[in-house]
Amino acid sequence: MTTLLILLAAAVASAPMSQPATRAEVAAQRAAVEQRFAREKAECEQRFAVSPCLEDLRKRRQDALAPLTRHEHELAAEERRARAAAQKQRVTERELAAAQDEGQRRERLLVAPPPLPPSTPASHATRARSPEEAERRRRQAADKAEADAAKRRERAQEREQRMQQRIAEHEARQKNRSKPPAAPLPLPGASAASAAR
């Protein structure tokens, strides 16, 4: 009986399957193959020589699933090509719409150009400076730069004084510590010399 089942399974596995059209059909065929081989595996496990039977079963299962796997890959590739074509179509449509919008915008600009900004009155126009005015402004800029530099130096001195004060306070706290500082560690060579004695 089991020999008949094995021969029948081999004939079914070697028979050309009709190519499924969808992933659902491929999944259904895969489930049928898996179910059939699960039954055969249970039969193999009832035998005395389990390993050779299971090895033969694995090979036949792999041979039966190979066309389904290939077809799944083909379906996936076909789906990817369809998605890529749809994306390309969407991009083309967007570019066409953008080109049409740009053309319409240009037509509107040609028909009615945008209003120009109001011209500045002559009173607001930049006037030519006299040499005295230029010298006065240069002196003001130099005085301002000198004042800013003096402020920066003053702030730097204040920061330096605060830093010195903090250092002095820290040193005073260190001197007032109740615990004496730890003894230094011995030199590496000294410990080796004392061990050798």
UniProtKB/TrEMBL annotation:
<protein>
    <submittedName>
        <fullName>Colicin import membrane protein</fullName>
    </submittedName>
</protein>
<feature type="region of interest" description="Disordered">
    <location>
        <begin position="79"/>
        <end position="197"/>
    </location>
</feature>
<feature type="compositionally biased region" description="Basic and acidic residues">
    <location>
        <begin position="129"/>
        <end position="174"/>
    </location>
</feature>
<keyword id="KW-0732">Signal</keyword>
<feature type="compositionally biased region" description="Low complexity">
    <location>
        <begin position="188"/>
        <end position="197"/>
    </location>
</feature>
<feature type="compositionally biased region" description="Basic and acidic residues">
    <location>
        <begin position="90"/>
        <end position="109"/>
    </location>
</feature>
<feature type="signal peptide">
    <location>
        <begin position="1"/>
        <end position="23"/>
    </location>
</feature>
